[in-house]
Design a protein that fits this description.
It comes from Hirschia baltica (strain ATCC 49814 / DSM 5838 / IFAM 1418). The chain is an all-alpha fold. It has helices spanning about 10-15, 20-35, 45-65, 65-80, 85-115.
């Protein structure tokens, strides 16, 4: 079962097919995205948005939002190298925010699918 944006097979594997655990993991992702997303600021020191990217990356990968995870990974690596221009930071941060928006929007569908089943296998 593969969503275009969220890999449900991965989410299933990470949660052992437990729908309630999957819902909890999705909630953690939303919470982490909200908190760390605020620190994705082009004008902030690159260490700040690299740390935020790192945290979002872990949360994204836990739900199977792999494209978001990859965007975060790229920004984290580059941010940790330092000496990043505002323009480059803007490109990196915009990529994360775009993928984060896609993932957040996809969560509504995933949450609906989970609410309609007792396990992943039933959906």
């Amino acid at each position: 079962m593969m969503s275009k944006i969220i890999d449900l097979d991965h989410l299933n594997a990470m949660t052992g097919g437990d729908v309630e655990l999957a819902r909890e993991v999705l909630g953690i992702f939303k919470h982490q995205s909200d908190i760390w997303g605020r620190l994705l600021d082009v004008n902030a020191p690159c260490e700040q948005w690299a740390d935020a990217a790192h945290s979002i990356k872990g949360s994204a990968r836990s739900i199977g939002a792999m494209e978001l995870g990859e965007a975060c990974h790229a920004a984290e690596i580059r941010g940790r190298e330092g000496n990043v221009s505002a323009a480059e930071a803007g490109v990196l941060i915009s990529a994360i925010k775009d993928k984060m928006t896609e993932a957040t929007e996809a969560l509504a569908k995933v949450e609906h699918q989970l609410s309609m089943s007792e396990s992943f296998k039933a959906s």
